[in-house]
């Protein structure tokens, strides 16, 4: 197995573009790759491009009639069929939509295949993480569910245990739905409470299908305003114990940057420094509990497209490459010039929000009046006994 990580990148993924006034601005992808290059991380990884996912791959998760509808909307956006979630405010149709979405999906599937072959232990596709797409519809800015497709391909290749950990501010509903009845896939999502935020799912009582799949879905629904300490406390109170028990052969993680306090579409108050800490924790957990340390890290949401997303995902690439970027490092001027050229914004100056990362371990006991602790108690009580673990 190669000691170098893979970074999946094709400039054409920036064609995934819902329009000038849509929150998911593809400039966030271009700026992330620019910052990766500014720090020289492109020399610490193998930058590779996989082909777009074909229909046979897309059908591992999506219905053929839906794929056909996406393809039709790509050539005639005005005729997009809203019954498939296309041409809506969240998912407006655009020319080339099928090709761009299939290309992003192809990067995640290609990365998964490379990990299973042993070409590398870690791989990153920060253009991916489009976790809301359903088998027969687009949803939440997501056309094809690359995370679910990568997992489905791994199952097709014979992988028996895959863990999916999603720390986007929104519930990873599409991935959960795809594997609801499959005990080979453990899905864990930490997100803002569904009472307050799209997609309205991800309650702790959602624990997977009947029979052997019961207990294979885990949902930590956090209160609005949760900051670094609570977010990290919840992650460490749930994820490591589940991975230690499940012992996955591959770990897939989704690192939506929209938990950040500057994100305009949600209500958590997490810093870049805490996001980096969870990325590092996922890396450590892969080495500790995952067979072959196989780790596929994906992007996801994130709508503070200059100040937050590029910094967060550049940290992710650095961690996967075993060459982490120092938080206090001054961001290269070459990248800030790129930011100004593309956005007319000045951009951040350092790779940190200046926060000290700390949290109280679950083993120290919980406060029944604390809303984060209530969320942790709810999910541990709902899922852990189903998996033979102490609540």
From TrEMBL:
InterPro entries documented for this protein: AcuC, HDACs, His_deacetylse_dom, His_deacetylse_dom_sf, Ureohydrolase_dom_sf
Domain Histone deacetylase: 22-317
Gene Ontology molecular-function annotations: histone deacetylase activity
Keyword vocabulary terms for this entry: Acetoin catabolism
Pathway connected to this protein: Ketone degradation; acetoin degradation
GO biological process, one term: acetoin catabolic process
Pfam name, any one: Hist_deacetyl
Family affiliation: Belongs to the histone deacetylase family.
Protein name: Acetoin utilization protein AcuC
Species annotation: Streptomyces candidus
């Amino acid at each position: 197995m190669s000691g170098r990580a893979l970074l999946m990148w094709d400039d054409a993924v920036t064609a995934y573009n819902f329009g000038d006034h849509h929150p998911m601005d593809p400039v966030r992808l271009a700026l992330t790759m620019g910052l990766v290059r500014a720090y020289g991380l492109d020399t610490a990884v193998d930058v590779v491009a996989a082909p777009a996912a074909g229909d046979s791959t897309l059908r591992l998760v999506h219905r053929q009639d839906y794929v056909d509808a996406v393809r039709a909307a790509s050539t005639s956006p005005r005729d997009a069929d809203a019954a498939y979630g296309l041409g809506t405010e969240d998912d407006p149709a655009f020319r080339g939509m099928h090709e761009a979405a299939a290309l992003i999906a192809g990067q995640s599937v290609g990365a998964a295949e490379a990990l299973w072959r042993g070409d590398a232990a870690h791989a990153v596709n920060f253009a991916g993480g489009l976790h809301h797409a359903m088998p027969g519809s687009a949803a939440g800015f997501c056309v094809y569910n690359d995370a679910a497709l990568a997992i489905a391909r791994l199952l097709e290749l014979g992988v028996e245990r895959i863990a999916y950990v999603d720390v986007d501010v929104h519930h990873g509903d599409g991935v959960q739905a795809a594997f609801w009845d499959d005990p080979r896939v453990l899905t864990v999502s930490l997100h803002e409470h569904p009472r307050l935020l799209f997609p309205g799912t991800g309650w702790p009582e959602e624990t997977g299908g009947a029979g052997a799949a019961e207990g294979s879905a885990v949902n930590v629904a956090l209160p609005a305003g949760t900051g670094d300490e609570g977010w990290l406390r919840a992650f460490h109170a749930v994820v490591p114990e589940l991975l230690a028990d499940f012992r996955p052969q591959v770990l897939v993680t989704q690192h939506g940057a929209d938990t950040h306090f500057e994100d305009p579409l949600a209500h958590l108050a997490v810093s870049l420094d805490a996001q980096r800490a969870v990325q590092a924790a996922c890396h450590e957990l892969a080495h500790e509990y995952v067979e072959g340390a196989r780790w596929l890290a994906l992007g996801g949401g994130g709508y503070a497209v200059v100040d937050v997303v590029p910094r967060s995902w550049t940290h992710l690439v650095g961690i996967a490459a075993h060459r982490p970027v120092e938080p206090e490092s001054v961001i290269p001027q070459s990248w800030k010039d790129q930011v100004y050229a593309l956005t007319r914004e000045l951009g951040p100056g350092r790779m940190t929000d200046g926060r000290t990362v700390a949290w109280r371990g679950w083993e120290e006991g919980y406060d029944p009046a604390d809303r984060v602790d209530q969320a942790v108690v709810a999910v541990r009580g709902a899922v852990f006994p189903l998996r033979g673990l102490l609540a």
